[in-house]
């Protein structure tokens, strides 16, 4: 019987267990998939710890993105057949050798993109797509600040934002990570451990500040991020790796220059089949064109998911991490 990672109680990486799980047979509108590669993301840690509790409770199989091969097609699925290569982003269930999934959630992987590459870029790349093209429509000449520039989303973000003609400023936690970010499209990288990013943004922009700040760090960067925005600027909070942003008086947005603030999620932007297809198509286009390069920097066996989580939380990883069934 196929196996999967399961979580029966919230906690540290040690709660990830590898056990037999029957994936079942695909029903109407569903497909059975054999995974070839599985993406690892910080949201998986949130599900493991209970910060983002699953709607139906425990146990759960974590993981939101993967690539694989269609094994079986359920009734009513006319556009897929066994043997097709597919990739997807959903909320849970990817840390598995096989699974049944709704066909509407998957997209075909085009020629020229490998399974490992696809598995490592769907959630991160589609996140970058909505951040740059829909949450704030970036145009040539815009100045952006992105926190955690050497992370998986950040390395895609830097390349894509550069491709759009923006001036891209990032923060990173070491000289090595700063160098990595510069190699992936960031024009300026601030080492937040040795530099004050607010002062550095003011210096880099000659006091003009930024049109938009993208912040997945949360508690540690929120106050400084607002200081980096120009009048009518936009603050985009899409994660909280340092902890949740504490409650704040919305009046501070007026005091800082009538700022805009939003807390978007991929699963609010990509709901309909049309939205999923359009987002994936835009991602595949920039990757196939060479404008965005997706590199897998860490590979772990699916059985080593706990070690992958520990390394991710310890900030030992850069860029894209995948699990191999």
Written overview of the protein:
- It is globular and about 60 Å long.
- 46% of the residues are buried.
- α3 crosses α4 and α3 packs across α10.
- The longest helix has 16 residues, at 273-288.
- The chain has helices at 42-49, 115-119, 122-135, 152-163, 175-182, 197-204, 222-227, 251-255, 266-269, 273-288, 305-313, and strands at residues 3-7, 16-20, 30-40, 65-73, 85-89, 98-102, 106-108, 143-146, 167-172, 188-191, 210-215, 229-237, 260-262, 296-301, 320-324.
- By secondary structure, the chain is an alpha/beta fold.
- It has 2 domains: 3-121 and 294-324, Alpha-Beta Complex (Quinone Oxidoreductase, Chain A, domain 1), CATH 3.90.180.10; 124-266, Rossmann fold (3-Layer(aba) Sandwich).
- The model has no long low-confidence stretch (mean pLDDT 96).
Number of domains: 2
Given helix and strand content, the structural type is alpha/beta
CATH topology-level name of the largest domain: Quinone Oxidoreductase, Chain A, domain 1
The total count of strands amounts to 15
Radius of gyration: 20 Å
Instruction: List segments where confidence is low: pLDDT < 50 over at least 5 consecutive residues.
Output: none
Report the principal-axis shape: globular
Task: Give the helix proportion (percent range).
Answer: 25-40%
In whole angstroms, how far apart are the ends? 13 Å
What is the H-and-E element order?
EEEHEEEEHHEHEHEHEHEHEHHEHE
- Mean pLDDT across all amino acids: 96
Major sheet attributes: 7 strands, mixed
How many individual helices?
Answer: 11
**CATH architecture grouping of the largest domain:** Alpha-Beta Complex
- In CATH terms, the superfamily of the largest domain is Medium-chain alcohol dehydrogenases, catalytic domain
CATH class of the largest domain: Alpha Beta
Strand share of the residues?
25-35%
Keywords: NADP, Oxidoreductase
Enzyme class: oxidoreductase
InterPro entries: ADH-like_C, ADH-like_N, ER, GroES-like_sf, NAD(P)-bd_dom_sf, QOR-like
GO molecular function: quinone reductase (NADPH) activity
């Amino acid at each position: 019987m196929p196996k999967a990672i399961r979580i029966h109680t919230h906690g540290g990486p040690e709660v990830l267990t590898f056990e037999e799980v029957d994936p079942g047979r695909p029903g109407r509108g569903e497909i059975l998939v054999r995974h070839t590669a599985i993406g690892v993301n910080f949201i998986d840690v949130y599900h493991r710890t209970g910060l983002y509790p699953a709607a139906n409770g425990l146990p759960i199989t974590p993981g939101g993105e993967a690539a694989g091969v269609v094994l079986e097609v359920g009734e009513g699925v006319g556009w897929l057949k066994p043997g097709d290569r597919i990739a997807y982003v959903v909320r849970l269930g990817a840390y598995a050798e096989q699974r049944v999934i709704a066909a509407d959630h998957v997209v075909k992987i085009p020629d020229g993109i490998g399974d490992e590459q696809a598995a490592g870029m769907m959630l991160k790349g589609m996140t970058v797509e909505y951040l740059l093209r829909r949450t704030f429509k970036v145009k040539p000449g815009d100045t952006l600040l992105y926190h955690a520039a050497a992370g998986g989303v950040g390395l895609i973000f830097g390349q894509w934002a550069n491709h759009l003609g923006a001036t891209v400023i990032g923060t990173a936690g070491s000289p090595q990570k700063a160098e990595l970010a510069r190699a992936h499209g960031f024009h300026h990288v601030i080492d937040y451990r040795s530099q004050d990013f607010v002062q550095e943004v003011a210096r880099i922009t000659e006091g003009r500040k930024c049109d938009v700040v993208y912040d997945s760090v949360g508690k540690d960067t929120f106050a400084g991020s607002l200081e980096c925005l120009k009048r009518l600027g936009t603050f985009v909070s899409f994660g909280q790796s340092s902890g949740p942003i504490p409650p704040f008086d919305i009046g501070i947005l007026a005091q800082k220059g009538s700022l805009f603030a939003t807390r978007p999620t991929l699963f609010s932007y990509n709901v309909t089949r049309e939205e999923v297809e359009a987002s994936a198509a835009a991602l595949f286009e920039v990757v196939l064109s060479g404008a965005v390069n997706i590199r897998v920097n860490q590979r772990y066996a699916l059985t080593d998911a706990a070690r992958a989580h520990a390394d991710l939380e310890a900030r030992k990883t850069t860029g894209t991490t995948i699990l191999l069934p």
